[in-house]
Design a protein that fits this description.
alpha/beta; 13 helices; disordered N terminus; Rossmann fold; 20% strand; 12 strands; elongated; 326 residues; 2 domains; seven-stranded mixed β-sheet
Length: 326
């Protein structure tokens, strides 16, 4: 009887320890997150990526640890931050626009890299092709080919008779020339001229608007990129002061007070990037995972800003709008 009692006690102890032992043995993954923009400018994208991971069964801080690295708008800091993630031996690096991708590529040829918002990844030499990227980079593109032209057409619709438009981008972005080429082609067909402008930081915003005045541009198209994103508050403020209608690539700018935006739902792209991370953690090779292009485009309009600029939004735009701020 005593031996039977001891056996029962031993079995009970093992049964109690079993789940705890299994929990301790649960695989914990480490994901690197590398961005040039400050974290404050990335908050909605961080939330979207973490939501995507949670939707796929990952618990942040339990079975997946995310190592965040933000360069605060300083492109020269990207190599050291990428190298830091490599030293930590993360399982995968999640990143965004091309300078981030290139810094990660230079830091490692073996750790998988998932990009949420690459621009012209083939033309810019980041991957061999969208269908078979090769190497250690895969993910999603922000560019689907027509959104830059669409933004110009929308700006023209809001500002009839517009003949000169300023195009504002962040300096040092390798894809700028590709975007300008697309924009100038559309502008030529519409009988418009484009005034290209670049900024490196907050100190350049005032100079850019002074150049817009000198060029007599009557509209502003802002390119995708970390530098315009980080300086969106001052750009929005200056555009309001100058009574200049402006169109942005992402609806977050309209929520912040910009007039209009048209482009992919960038937060949705970061949420979808979690799907790539999940497949890679389960054994997929990035070289074999085709790039995906945006499937969800959003037209957003800030009606308060329109009224402040003295603009009556055409009904044709209002009926197309996915998101109205009033």
């Amino acid at each position: 009887m005593r031996l039977r009692s001891l056996a029962v006690v031993a079995f009970s102890v093992l049964a109690t320890l079993g789940p705890a032992t299994a929990q301790q043995a649960e695989k914990v993954y480490r994901v690197g997150y590398l961005q040039i923009s400050p974290r404050s400018a990335q908050a909605h994208l961080v939330e979207a990526f973490e939501r995507g991971m949670s939707e796929r069964g990952y618990a942040i801080g339990r079975n997946v640890l995310i190592e965040y690295r933000f360069a605060d708008g300083k492109i020269e800091r990207l190599p050291e931050l990428a190298a830091d993630l490599v030293r930590l031996k993360v399982d995968v690096i999640v990143t965004g626009v091309n300078p981030n991708i290139r810094a990660a590529q230079r830091a490692t040829t073996t750790i998988p890299i998932v990009t949420a918002i690459a621009l012209y990844p083939v033309e810019d030499g980041l991957v061999a092709s969208l269908g078979r990227p090769g190497g250690n980079v895969t993910g999603l593109t922000q560019h689907a080919g027509e959104e830059v032209a669409k933004r110009l057409q929308l700006l023209r619709e809001v500002t009839p008779g517009l003949t000169r438009v300023a195009a504002l981008s962040g300096a040092g972005m390798s894809y700028n020339s590709l975007m300008f080429k697309t924009l100038e082609g559309t502008a030529g067909r519409l009988g418009m001229a484009v005034v290209p402008l670049e900024i490196r930081g907050a100190e350049d915003v005032g100079h850019a608007f002074a150049e817009i005045d000198r060029a007599q541009a009557r509209g502003l198209l802002v390119f995708s990129g970390p530098i315009p994103l980080a300086n969106r508050a001052s750009i929005i403020s200056m555009a309001a002061k100058k009574k200049l209608p402006a169109i942005w690539p992402d609806q977050q700018h309209v929520i912040d007070g910009g007039l209009m935006s048209y482009g992919p739902d960038v937060a949705d792209l970061f949420r979808r990037a979690a799907g790539y991370v999940d497949r890679i953690l389960k054994g997929a090779k990035p070289a074999d995972l085709p790039f995906e292009q945006p499937t969800k485009f959003v037209l957003a309009v800030n009606l308060r800003t329109a009224r402040a600029l003295g603009i009556t939004m055409p009904q044709s735009i209002l009926v197309q709008a996915d998101h109205l701020v009033d």
